[in-house]
Design a protein that fits this description.
globular; about 0% strand; mainly alpha
Length: about 130
């Protein structure tokens, strides 16, 4: 058996299959959350345009590590830090998110509207839209 492992053909053909089998699989809940996030869009057309060009590509794919749009549980932890902290994280960059979240021409009120939309906080008690 040890000779088999030293065989380059084994390494090229068999080993990737073992490694692939160890990869994290997406759970049905994650797939459903992604599908749901892709259906959401801000009602305000100017905010929707910014979302489509700057936010959608990461906040609708769980593998990016970004909280999914509409995932209230993931966003509530972040909202607890306060809007000022969240906007600061966007402006300075945070984790895998680049500075300004890929929206170099956005203003603070636009970032706040995007965060409110993506977090699902719109219309919830304590949100800016109450």
């Amino acid at each position: 058996m040890p000779n088999l492992i030293k065989n380059p053909l084994f390494l090229v053909l068999i080993l990737p299959g073992f490694l692939w089998g160890c990869a994290e699989e997406q759970t049905p809940n994650a797939a459903a959350a992604e599908a749901h996030s892709r259906q959401l869009s801000p009602q305000d057309k100017s905010i929707a345009a910014i979302y489509d060009r700057s936010c959608r590509s990461c906040h609708t794919i769980a593998a990016t590590g970004a909280p999914l749009t509409g995932d209230i549980d993931a966003w509530s932890i972040r909202l607890d830090k306060g809007m000022d902290t969240l906007v600061n994280n966007v402006v300075t960059g945070f984790g895998g998110m680049p500075p300004f979240g890929m929206c170099m021409d956005c203003e603070v009120p636009q970032f706040e509207a995007l965060i409110t939309f993506m977090s699902g906080a719109e219309g919830r008690p304590g949100s800016a839209n109450d």
